[in-house]
Known about the structure:
Number of domains of chain A: 2
Low-confidence stretches of chain B: 73-86
Shape of chain A: elongated
Shape of chain B: elongated
CATH class of the largest domain in chain A: Mainly Alpha
CATH superfamily of the largest domain in chain A: RNA polymerase sigma factor, region 2, helix turn helix motif
Number of helices of chain B: 6
Structural class of chain B: alpha+beta
Order of helices and strands of chain B: HHHHEHHEEEEEEEEEEEEEEE
Distance between the termini of chain B: 91 Å
CATH architecture of the largest domain in chain A: Orthogonal Bundle
Number of domains of chain B: 2
Radius of gyration of chain A: 24 Å
Number of strands of chain A: 0
Low-confidence stretches of chain A: 1-19, 99-116
Helix content of chain A: 55-70%
Largest interface: A-B, 42 and 32 residues
Order of helices and strands of chain A: HHHHHHHH
Largest sheet of chain A: none
Strand content of chain A: under 5%
Oligomer: heterodimer
Structural class of chain A: mainly alpha
Largest sheet of chain B: 5 strands, mixed
Number of helices of chain A: 8
Radius of gyration of chain B: 33 Å
Amino acid sequence: MSNGSSTAIEPNVVRLRVEPDRPAAFRTLVGAALDDAYRRAAVLLGNRSEAEDAVHDAAEKAWRSWGSLRDPDRFDAWFARILVNTCRDRLRARRRVRPIVVGDDRSATLGVSGGIDAVDSAQSLRQALDVLGADDRIAVVLRYESDLTVPAIAALVGVPEGTVKSRLHRALGILRTVYEASER
Amino acid sequence: MTNNSAFEAQLRRQLAATRPTEGASTTLAARVRDIPERVRLTPPAIALLVRAAVPIAAVGLAAAALLIASFGFTRAPVVGLPPDSVGAAVVGFDPAIQGTGLIDDYVRSAALVGLAVVLLSGAVGVGTFLGPRAGTRRGRLMILGGVLGVFAGIGLIRFDVGLTVGGLRGAPLRYVEAPAPALGDTPILWFSTAATGEPTVGTFSLRNTSALPVRIEGLVGYSKDLGIRHWKALWIPVNGAGLDAPALDQIRPFEPVTLEPMQELNVYIAGIGSPCAFGPAFDPEAEYSAQDLEGYTQLGPGLQVVVSVFGLTSMETVDVGETFAEPIVPGCNGGTTLGG
């Protein structure tokens, strides 16, 4: 209803196809997962500076394949899988290129504080973990550090549960042998 | 010796000790925040194209390999049948019919298929190593196993071709046999007595001693090295494969024949006296001086037979156990082969 002095204006209903703000969504989701991703990468790789690079690489891969993420609720699992794969590639590359360590930076590398015994024990463990293949090492870390179940590891890594079990069995055998030999 | 639970507990403690207490650094957070600005997303269509490139290439190469295996055989008769004999049911040796069963050149399709397999494997390998499942041990083993399997199959087919001469040897038209001791350990020697332009016929049988059916495609009748044509035509018995040695009026122009394992095929090779042929006056037991006889043009005992197994073509050199020789008059430059 309008009075005489006013003009009736039909509002223009403009329907815009609003593109989701991809960069903002990416920054929000990755930002929330960044700390956990960094810690997990640090344990998987045993090296903090390399962990930062791995997380950055994983985030870049995630951005490149952002279109394949259908459900944002599944972002954490999706990104964790990318991160684990990125770490696995780095572990494999590391086995091909053996770095020459100058000086003793064990505690700096592992971030272990404590007395001589603690450092020696960590050193033994690092030696033992270094012997493992990339897949075996990932299985061990996800099982005994992240406390994931075998089915959860299988889903994350993308292999059958039986494969995870056999990797864990093999890895523990190797770890025990190397660890006990170094403790003698 | 540590027990299992104690060892696992120790492992947990040690791994926990390696876990940083602090979170990601501000530098890392800034680098990650900056990614959408730095990294441009690939348009979906291009990404799909890139992803599909390897399978498309693999399918294309597989199709090429199949086509080469099926049609890679090039058969080029030396002269070809005379127009009036094409399609006619010719029975009985006719020297006017030339070119049947003779192959100038051919494509070694087995080698080409091998090359295609290598390319295909390379494409699949590159795709696998660059793909999302890059470098998995299972993937590598699958590729390696697949490639080895294909090569083993081709190698088995290629090397299993066992073609030997059967029980039939002879020279039914215008040949005389060399006397002993030429018959000793040396191959049987036949001297052509055909005058220039006269036909000659020799015969032998081919036996398939492999476990696979072998298709006899023909005889290589042209020597690239010497630039000469050895023979004029290939003939087979009217009834095809068999152990009989029919007379020359019971043979017909050659057509490719598939021999089952241990099956035998009689083959007749026809030549024509060359312009330099010594002719019917030649006596194998006579002593000739250099003024009377220039020498001999010999063919055999190895003859090149083109065969195919499951579409893979190759050439087999078969020792037919006999040598065909044409005595040559001195001082002749008009051609020195049985084929003329």
